[in-house]
Every structure is written in structure tokens, then in C-alpha cells.
Amino acid sequence: MLLKESPKIVKANARELSYSGRIDFTDPLAPIFIFPASSVTMIFKGSKLKALVKNRQSNYSTYIGYVLDGVEEKVILPSNKEVQKITLAENLNSDKQHEIVFFKRQDARCEFTFYGFIVDTESKISMPRKKYRKCMEFYGESAACGKSLEDIHCTNAVDLSNSYKYSNAWNSYAMMTARNLKAEVNIIAQEGIALLDNTGYFNAPQSIGMESIYDKLHFDFNTGEIVNWDFNRYIPQVVVIDIGQNDSIPENYMKEDLDSYKSINWRNHYKEFVLNIRRRYKNAFIVLTTTIIKHDSSWDRAIGLVCEEINDKKIVHFLYSCNGFGGDFHNSKWCAEEMSLELSLFLKGLGAEIWEK
After folding, report:
1. 95 plus 212 within the same structural domain
2. Mind listing the pLDDT tens digit for each residue in 110-158?
3. Cβ atoms within 10 A of the Cβ of 125, count?
4. Maximum Cα–Cα distance across the chain
5. Nearest to residue 63, comparing CAs of 201, 335, 53?
6. Which residues contact 82 (CB under 8 A, 6 or more apart)?
7. Are both 118 and 148 inside the same structural domain?
8. Are 144 and 37 in contact (CB under 8 A)?
């Protein structure tokens, strides 16, 4: 009750707030941020700013990112699962208009609930700029999540409990590509994920694949919190699928024999996954790719074969100049910038037609 009665609170359902990403709005006053780079934006005049948030997990350190007047920062969120008042700014110029973008740095292991912002009583709140006409969606893994992007020594690739502070989806290649193209974006990505269940790193040893989560809003299979996503809520014109880097775990069967039963089975599942995306978005331009994260080129050849078999002029196969020659687990920010530049130039080169609905 105290939160609702305070005149200083901009509630989460305020019309002045602009949201981006696949977010759970079941309770409009307490939206849940799940997927990487999901964000809320507000324009305000005032000298102080706080955010009201609650951690929804305690296994890993949860960091939240924000961009205030163009300057990016991060804060750690306590894991006690109580509503926290997180100070974002003090002593701002109260006569100046400020912009805050409050976003999710990490993957879906680190959910949090957002209740609103706290500002000065006399603060004036206004609508952010209109959203972009262009809309993108990414289905991917570590690179799209910005996994350990800020770990310049690459020392925490496997130790999730320590590496999470280095993850930053805001500077992932996916988010930078969207900014380059001035597009809204949903990033459906999870560190370590492969296409099929029981492969890849995510949730090992009972690994969960993209097949099982791409159509979900919540997919915490450990707690049983599984909620389907309504694809009518967001219709992208361009979709990027970068699955394939982690599919050789625990067995690199594609490298051993491109025509083995397991290899053919993977290609069949990959084809069906792509066609499922096509069924959801009948007019979307779909890019099939992997990333520069280290993997055998046989997986790219397999994707190329599937692309040829589908034979859809709006589904294409794209390879980066250093495809598969990066690090074992994650990209550096420099690599993400290079990937975003190459992908942005590729999409720009296709002309305005790909953005037509």
C-alpha cells in the first residue's frame, strides 16, 4: 500500500514508460524481465532517480544495466527476493530533461521484477520517442546474450557464479545490430544453448535446447514455471537464427559424418525449427547463421544444406568473415562489434524490401 500511495513513484504501468523485449506483463504493475536486453525507457526532469526491483533467483549474481543520458552503468541486485530501491542517480540538473534506459544485462537465469521508478515529487515525466518501425528478433546463445563480454582476460568462461558480472546483452552483437539498423528487437537467447534437448551446455546435465524454449515466455523447467509466448504480441520483419555453436556437445557427430543418422536427424529438426518460425512470421526475412564462437565448419555446411532444401527466397544463409574462429565460450566486445558491423552491412545491402510487412 505504501508504494501505491507514494506520489514519487512512476508505476510500472504508467503510460509514459516504453518497454522493449519479451517481457511478462501478466501483472502490469509488476512486469517480469526474462530475456536479455529487455528494457524500459523513461524521459524525466528531476534531480534524483531510483528503481524499484525484486530479484527472482538466487543462484547467480544478478546485475542490472542502465543508460542515463547516454552513459552506461550497472548495479548488482541483492538476492534476498525483497523489493529493493536501487539508486541510479542523484544531484542531476533538475531543469534538464533526462533519459533512462533500464535493461537486463544477463540471460534468463537472472529474472527480476520491475515495479517502477522513484523520482522527485516535482519531477515531470514525458513519453519517450516513438518506437522504430523496423522490428528484429534473434534466436541465439552466448553471443546474442553478451556472455562475459566485459571479461577482457577470458578467465571466467565456465565459472557462471563469477562470470555473470561480465555479461552485458546491451553490447551483444544482436543489440548492436538493432541499434545500427534503428530497429526494435527481441533477443530470445540463452547462454550455452543448442538446438536439441540433451545437447549443449544450458541446464546440463539435463540440457535444454532452443526447440523447447523458443515459444516460451517462462521456461524454468526446474521450478515448473512454464508459460507459452503469444507470437501475435510482436511481429518482426527480420529474424536471425544463430543456433549451431553448442550442438557438438557432448558429441561432434556432424564433424565425424555429415550423413550419419544423428547428423540427418539434426538437420531435420533444424529445418522444422526454421519452418516453425516461418509459420509464426509468414512474411519475415530469416537469416540462418552461426557466430564466430569456435565451432567446426560442418555445422555451417549442415545449415547451408537445410537452407537449400527449404528453398525460400526470404530465408538465406549468412557467414561471418571469421565464422567459427573465435573463442571457445564467448565473444569479446571487439568481436561483437565486428559481427554487428558485418551483419548490419549485409542486411542494409538487401534494401528496404526486407522491412516491408
Report:
1. no
2. 889 999 999 998 889 988 877 789 999 999 999 999 887 777 665 444 4
3. 16
4. 68
5. 53
6. 54
7. no
8. no
